[in-house]
Amino acid sequence: MKFLFSNKTTQRFLAALLVMSLPFYLHAQISGEVVYKREIHIGENKFWMDTLRFNGTEFSFIENRTNQQWTTEEGYRIYVHAEDKISFWDAKSLEVIEQQYNAKKRRHELRKQTAHVYDWEIHDEFKTIGKYKVQKATAEHPHPKLYTITAWFTTEIPVSGGPCVIWGLPGLIVEMSIQGTYVGRYIMESIVLKPVGSLKPTEGVWVEEKGALKTDKSALQDLLNKEGN
User: Fold this and answer.
1) Would you give the DSSP letter of residue 105?
2) Which of 4, 72, 76, 208 has the fewest other C-beta atoms within 10 Å?
3) Which residues are 79's β-sheet partners?
4) Least confident interval from 12-21, 152-161, 177-186
5) pLDDT tens digits, one per residue of 166-200
6) C-alpha closest to that of 28 among 101, 82, 91, 97
7) Which residues, in sequence order, are CB contacts of 128 under 8 Å at separation 6+?
8) Whole-angstrom distance, CA of residue 128 vs CA of residue 38
9) What's domain 8-228's architecture?
10) Domain extent listing, the chain
11) 39 close to 45: Cβ distance less than 8 angstroms
């Protein structure tokens, strides 16, 4: 499948149609595991390995790393926190669940999150990564607009997923870079097509989404202010 459009409005309209039709044309039985090399460049090159598991329209992105600390040539100390996190999403139902370890409370916590729908612009640019022919697509993080995403995807693996709950393209994201408040690059190190078990995380205590908690506090404060007047 190729996209050779010159008009940006047409590109976005067709990309939106593709997102709406993804569950109907993606191979429901295709499943497997992708390992991404996650690179950051702050003072020196650092990287971690993250894993994406998929089964049809369901995905699970797994981040697991220890605390990292180093000093740049300019003398700045960089500290990256440890992470024990699983992000699950379903590209059909738009269900998103996050399982994360809370070091302070020494427990895993489960949260329902908001599914972001990306307004992809698919470009007439191609290259080869490994054995896959890939095509360029760009988008901004929709809410809030924190960063710009540049992704290279392949329709040879027809699953609508990639790192960090970034999805909506008609093929697997093989390489991706993020520029903005967060800077990083992901590139596929390996992929194995195989049966995978249940992807939805279940370990931990259910807690309220942080955004909803802030909204409730704000509404309560507004009520108190009204009563005070």
Assistant:
1) T
2) 4
3) 69
4) 12-21
5) 999 999 999 999 887 666 789 999 999 999 988 99
6) 91
7) 134
8) 19
9) Clam (2.50)
10) 8-228
11) yes
